[in-house]
Task: structure prediction
Amino acid sequence: MDRPPYLLLASASPRRRELLAELGVTFTVVAAGVVEDEDPLLDPRRMVAHNAALKADWVAARHPSAVVLGADTTVALDGQALNKPADPTAARAMLRALSGRTHRVVTGVAVRSLDRGFRLDADAIAEVTFKSFDDTVIDEYLRRVHVFDKAGGYGIQDHGELLVAHFKGELSTIVGLPLSLTKQFLTEAGLLD
Result:
């Protein structure tokens, strides 16, 4: 008798782990040993699709009987990716650029199961509009939130009220794992009803 599929999350992100747990599916975290492509000149949708697939493929190659979920998120402003800031200066520059503007948050999702020949890829997009704010607000935000692991230099779930006027789309897409898309993929993979 075939063993039922099991799920591996190819991400060390605590936010993705928390979101995936909301679906009520059992999973194990196996962080992918890859270097993500974060070229800000790449099309943001292509970049996150590439990175999500890179993570899922790396873990799936080592666990061919598992169902593997990979994801990647970036912030896009004027068609350019704002990835994780390297330092406080970069974080301040990103937040200044986003102030008073609407940007897109793009999350790519890839699901793999090599033994079953299962491969799904898609992305989800949400729009976030920031309040207009000055350096005082930026300094306060950076004092409260560790931003160096967050695309665009912010996390909507971490004191987002300081920055965000409103958003359109699924909150989980902005946080890092679009739950409706993930649920659809995991249902197709036989892990959810």
Q: What stands out?
A: The helical segments are 14-21, 44-62, 88-98, 135-144, 171-175, 179-188. The chain has a mean pLDDT of 95. The chain has one domain: 7-188. Residues 7-188 form a domain with the Maf protein fold (CATH 3.90.950.10).
